[in-house]
Design a protein that fits this description.
The complex is a heterodimer.
Chain A: E1 2-7, H1 17-22, E2 29-34, H2 41-44, E3 49-54, E4 89-91, H3 103-106, E5 116-118
Antiparallel strand pairs in A: 1-2, 1-3, 4-5
Chain B: E1 2-6, H1 17-23, E2 32-36, E3 40-43, E4 48-50, E5 61-65, E6 91-94, E7 104-106, E8 111-114, E9 117-120, E10 129-130, E11 140-142, E12 145-148, E13 155-156, E14 162-164, E15 167-170, E16 177-181, E17 186-188, E18 191-194, E19 203-206, E20 211-215, E21 218-220, E22 224-227, E23 231-235, E24 237-239, E25 248-250, E26 257-259, E27 263-266, H2 309-317
Parallel strand pairs in B: 1-2, 2-5, 3-6, 4-7, 5-8, 6-9, 7-10, 8-11, 9-12, 11-14, 12-15, 13-16, 14-17, 15-18, 16-19, 17-20, 18-21, 19-22, 20-23, 21-24, 24-25
Antiparallel strand pairs in B: 26-27
Classes of the chains: A alpha+beta, B mainly beta.
């Protein structure tokens, strides 16, 4: 039902702590698409990414993985925390996903299964 | 310069804009260009977030349409209504609410967006462009059509933001503004309008710091031209707002456009024709015309006199049209 492009190594900006926070890290979901997606050779062969299939999960149900770290903004629209991370949640790639993970397994907000992980504060 | 193509059908280098952006090095070592094909990419989540990169004046990030795939390349552009229409070329459509689901979020420096159509249709707060709270990113938007349906839907915060030859449309009635800025941008030969029928937005542009310079801009269907603590300067602008600041001329919208609300091309006899001043940022126009010194039109469009301006278009594109 859905497929994800997932980062496998940290993207690191050594010039700026703020920019580094905005870079995607290992386990971050970059895009979520429908199954049988026509991935290109650059995407399939990227040494920095992997493609995971979620045959039993609709892509809309995974959209939480794309959400940024929630921030607060002042009345003029300025972010009060300049170090917000690109993604609030990520897939723990140190633990293998089952071949056909269920939504419950992936979105395990209670962390009873080690697939879903929230960022450290 | 690295140029890569984004085609959701698999015919390019990447199938999504975000995959392209994520593949860029954190510190650029050359200019990076992502070019979309003639298709509309629609998503309820963010389509493209540009953040986390170290850029320079030379090593820039450009988001554009592939040659021949932009609405600006449409051979029938002179007779096609000027508004967001995915049938006319490469387009990004955000359907979700909140800034985090914007079509294009720009948080890096030295970013250029050209020759694209961008729309956000969520009535509760859709963003076509956002800075996602960053007050330093200062993109250049050139030859784009951008439409949004919220008071923060067209958001540019950096002090060196340059908006030129572009059409900005507020699609929601009775909202706060068309453009929401923080530090004042430079706006050259842009058309700022609302297309809703009924109550207009309160203001055309809000900016709270710095100087907001508007040159050769067409500002229509907002209650007033501006709000905020920024210093606003107007040069050869035309408007129908209730106030008429120095540098603006009060005219009627229906006298300017082929169809105010749905087609923002200038029409024959419009006051905006040949009423602008020379500005190097004001050319070429959104319809690809190299503007002639002393004859700049006001707004993003350059009205063609049959047979004359077509020659300008041929020179610009290098091909017959």
């Amino acid at each position: 039902m859905s497929e994800c492009l997932i980062r496998t190594v940290d993207k690191i900006n050594i010039d700026s702590r703020q920019k580094n926070a905005a870079c995607t890290k290992r386990g971050d979901v970059i895009v979520i698409v429908d199954d049988n997606w026509p991935w290109t050779a650059k995407e399939i062969n990227s040494p920095q990414h992997t493609i995971k299939k979620f045959p039993g999960i609709d892509k809309d149900d995974l959209s939480g993985f794309l959400a940024p770290e929630p921030g607060t903004f002042d009345s003029l629209g300025r972010a009060l925390d300049p170090y917000l991370q690109r993604r609030f949640s990520f897939l723990d790639l140190s633990v293998g996903l089952p071949a056909r993970p269920t939504l419950t397994q992936v979105l395990d907000t209670q962390r009873t299964k080690p697939i879903w992980s929230d960022r450290d504060p | 310069m690295a140029t890569e193509t984004i085609d959701s059908g698999g015919g390019g280098d990447f199938t999504t804009w975000q995959a392209w952006e994520d593949n860029l090095p954190a510190t650029l070592i050359e200019a990076e260009v992502g070019q979309g094909v003639n298709e509309e990419i629609s998503s309820s989540s963010a389509i493209l977030i540009i953040a986390g990169h170290t850029t320079t004046a030379t090593f820039t990030i450009t988001v554009t349409a592939r040659a021949g795939d932009s609405f600006a390349d449409n051979p029938s552009i002179e007779t096609t209504p000027l508004t967001y229409d995915s049938a006319n070329g490469c387009a990004l459509l955000a359907t979700g609410g909140y800034a985090s689901n914007a079509a294009i979020s720009i948080q890096d420096q030295n970013v250029f967006v050209t020759r694209l159509q961008v729309d956000a249709t969520h009535s509760g707060g859709g963003n076509a462009f956002t800075n996602n709270g960053d007050t330093t990113a200062s993109p250049t938007i050139d030859q784009c059509i951008a439409r949004a349906k919220s008071s923060d839907g067209l958001q540019f915060f950096g002090p060196n933001t340059l908006l030129k030859n572009s059409l900005f449309i507020q699609a929601q009635n009775n909202t706060l503004r068309i453009l929401h800025c923080y530090n004042g941008p430079e706006v050259v030969n842009c058309t700022l309008v609302s297309e809703g029928v009924g109550n207009d937005p309160n203001d055309a542009i809000e900016a709270n710091y710095g100087t907001t310079q508007l040159t050769n801009c067409a500002i229509f269907n907002a209650d007033t031209t501006d709000i905020g603590s920024s210093t606003f300067t107007y040069t050869d602008c035309f408007t129908n707002t209730s106030n008429t600041p120095t540098g603006c001329t009060d005219v009627v919208d229906t006298d300017q456009f082929v169809a105010a609300q749905s087609d923002w091309r200038l029409k024959s006899g419009a006051d905006c024709i040949d009423a602008g001043s020379d500005d190097t940022n004001g050319t070429p126009s959104i319809n690809g015309i190299s503007r002639v010194s002393g004859n700049y039109d006001v707004g993003c469009w350059e009205f063609l006199v049959a047979g004359v301006a077509n020659a300008n278009r041929m020179l610009l594109l290098g091909v017959g049209v």
